[in-house]
Amino acid sequence: MATWQLVRDMLLGIPSYNFVLDSENVVNVLVPTESGRDQRVYICNEGDSVSISAAVCKLADVDLNKLFAAPLMRDLPFGLGVMTNHLAVRHWQLLEDLDVAEVTKPIIRIAYLADNLESMLTGQDLY
Asked: Is residue 97 assigned to a domain?
């Protein structure tokens, strides 16, 4: 069974990404995506689980028709939710089921998905 401390320390020890400790319970990383774009991803201790989230755009900027008509929404492997006043791609993983060696995979996938949605919905690269 993984612990938050084990996940946090493993992420902070990865030299190829600049993971930053925001607080005792939050780590973030800026993931380079495509064409000079990047996406900030937050990994948070949620007690018995870890959440991985990336903001897409402000809720006021979301065109729901455009969002749900997008081809990438057909096979969305993660959930959409609200992070403050932003649309976000989100994923939760129970610590007891978490393979620490595999934790970077959903972080990278969420970064790319959120970045693609941000580009599609706003044409910008703010998050």
From this structure: yes
